[in-house]
Amino acid sequence: MDPKALKIEAARTALGHVEDGMRLGIGTGSTASEFVRLLAAKVAAGMKILGVATSERTAALCAELGVPLSTIDDTPELDLTIDGADEIDPHLGLIKGGGGALLREKIVAAASARMIVIADQSKLVDVLGRFPLPIEVNRFGLRATEIAIAREAGALGVSGPLTLRVTNGQPFVTDGGHLILDASFGRIPDTRALSNALHTVPGVVEHGLFLGMADLAIVAAADGIRTIQAN
């Protein structure tokens, strides 16, 4: 199966966890988009849900396909969020933010009673860090923030280039108006310590380590669907 087909299968399996009447967080990214398309078909057939999108891009797709949306302010408590991930470790630690929506994704996930991650098998890793860690930062003091991030990471024995994300020759700007530094740290031996250290840097708005947030991962492979429960 090609990667798109695997994403569709993961999304289809996740849809089986969506119940009529749910308040549903809806993720961002290529796998989440496949979920939205399948969800839209269920809504068209009569399923009643109320969605909260994790990005303007997802909100636009939901509007186009007829998936009803609320906002996180109007619906601050959600039953379930379904979202993708850039990396998944054996304990359901995640790296997210490749699509640039990590802050809103984390807010929505934290507001949800449960979070299900959908992905293809290429996203499974033994230790997080192969995928560059997205760090959402304030525009003001960018260089000072970059230096502070490197210092905090270095104190934990983690180092690597910090690259300002650029799209079409211009700095990528998140839905919240921030910038993203992609940290190519490699394997991160203590993700919790790094998470805590990054949160001490004033210019860091949020980072893409999602720890202790996912309850279930649905992973599609050529030989079928694999589920990973949080332990």
Task: Please outline the helices and strands.
Blueprint lengths: L2 H13 L7 E4 L3 H15 L5 E4 L2 H10 L3 E2 L9 E4 L3 E2 L5 E2 L6 H9 L4 E6 L12 E5 L4 H14 L6 E3 L1 E2 L2 E2 L7 E5 L7 H8 L5 E4 L1 E2 L5 E6 L2 E6 L2
Parallel strand pairs: 1-2, 1-4, 2-3, 4-7, 7-15
Antiparallel strand pairs: 5-6, 6-14, 8-12, 8-13, 9-12, 10-11, 15-16
Helix pairs in contact: 1-2, 2-3
Class by SSE composition: alpha/beta
**Whole-number radius of gyration?**
17 Å
Order of helices and strands: HEHEHEEEEHEEHEEEEHEEEE
The percent of residues in helical segments reads 25-40%
Mean pLDDT: 97
- How far is the N terminus from the C terminus? 30 Å
Per CATH, the class of the largest domain reads Alpha Beta
Number of domains: 2
CATH level-two architecture of the largest domain: 3-Layer(aba) Sandwich
- Helical segment tally? 6
What does this structure look like?
- The chain is an alpha/beta fold.
- It folds into two domains: 3-124 and 211-222, Rossmann fold (3-Layer(aba) Sandwich), CATH 3.40.50; 133-205, Alpha-Beta Plaits (2-Layer Sandwich).
- The chain has six helices and 16 strands.
- It has helices spanning 3-15, 30-44, 56-65, 102-110, 142-155, 191-198; strands spanning 23-26, 50-53, 69-70, 80-83, 87-88, 94-95, 115-120, 133-137, 162-164, 166-167, 170-171, 179-183, 204-207, 209-210, 216-221, 224-229.
- Strands 3-2-1-4-7-15-16 form a seven-stranded mixed sheet, with helices on both faces. Strands 9-12-8-13 form a four-stranded antiparallel sheet. It has a three-stranded antiparallel sheet with strand order 5-6-14, with no helix packed on it.
- Strand 15 and strand 16 form a beta hairpin.
- Helix 2 (30-44) packs parallel to helix 3.
- The protein is globular.
- The relative contact order is 0.18.
- The mean pLDDT is 97.
